[in-house]
Design goal:
This protein is α/β, with parallel strands linked by helices and 230 residues long. The protein has a single domain, classed as Spore Coat Polysaccharide Biosynthesis Protein SpsA, Chain A (Alpha-Beta Complex), CATH 3.90.550.10. Helix content is 37%, strand content 17%. The protein has eight helices and seven strands; from the N terminus they run βαβαβαβαβαβααβα. Strands 3-2-1-4-6-5-7 form a seven-stranded mixed sheet, sandwiched between helices. The chain is globular and about 50 Å long. Pfam families: Glycos_transf_2. Keywords: Transferase. GO terms for molecular function: transferase activity. InterPro entries: Glyco_trans_2-like, Glycosyltransferase_2, Nucleotide-diphossugar_trans. This is Glycosyl transferase, 2.
Length: 230
């Protein structure tokens, strides 16, 4: 029996990229459903997403911006109805979203319970590596598993893994927190190198503020996980 695969795309002000993102994955035969959750965008993300005419695509708009975690949980309520395999993709991947097929095939071949996209090195200089290092070292410290892409939001899950979570955690620490839980529950994770690209934060004030929030959220999540898994 073939698996029903649903892809959830949380999108906030992605009018420039959402069309390319959607058009690059609609022709992937293995994907049965694409759930776009517009997280209260102030631009015309919803209108552009809805203009991509394909029976796989379902577009929903939240009444206000509530954050990526909320948008993912909203999408999950829809995806869990039919899907055996569920994926998360960002709305700003553009045409490189087609690389998701590299994540789908290993899970169909039962190579792991969760597949995470490993991106090529960033094209422009970002932060100083504090956030990535904190995420990687903390996951290893808590689980004994060394992963390079603990911050990657491009993931494919077997349904049973997501059923262990009452809801997806909120905030910038979501990926790290989920990775720790998944490994602690005894599920397997495999990283797959993809040629995906998305909006990168640079070494400007906005970039440093973003990474500061990430660092704070991850520290907060790690504190909670240390208590939970003692």
């Amino acid at each position: 029996m073939s698996s029903y695969i649903s892809i959830i795309i949380p999108a906030y002000n992605e009018a420039d990229k959402i069309k390319d993102t959607l058009e690059s994955i609609t022709d992937i035969n293995e994907i049965d459903e694409i759930v776009v959750v517009d997280d209260g965008s102030s631009d015309n993300t919803t209108e552009i997403a809805s203009s991509v005419k394909n029976d796989k695509i379902k577009v929903f708009k939240l009444d206000k911006n509530r954050g990526k975690g909320y948008a993912l949980n909203y999408g999950l309520k829809i995806a869990m109805e039919n899907a055996d395999i569920i994926g998360f993709l960002d709305g700003d991947l553009g045409s490189s979203a087609s690389e998701v097929k590299k994540l789908i095939m290993p899970i169909l071949n039962n190579e792991a319970d969760v597949i995470i996209a490993k991106f090529p090195p960033a094209k422009k200089k970002g932060g100083l590596g504090f956030v990535k290092r904190l995420a990687k070292e903390s996951v290893f410290e808590m689980t004994g598993v060394e992963l390079d892409s603990t911050l990657s939001g491009q993931r494919i899950f077997k349904k049973e893994v997501l059923e262990k979570f009452e809801e997806i955690p909120y905030g910038y620490g979501v990926e790290v927190g989920m990775t720790i839980d998944i490994l602690k529950y005894g599920y397997t994770i495999k990283e797959v190198l993809v040629n995906m690209t998305h909006s990168e934060t640079g070494r400007d004030l906005k970039g440093f503020i973003h990474r500061g929030k990430q660092y704070y959220h991850i520290k907060k999540v790690l504190k909670a996980k240390n208590k939970e898994w003692r």
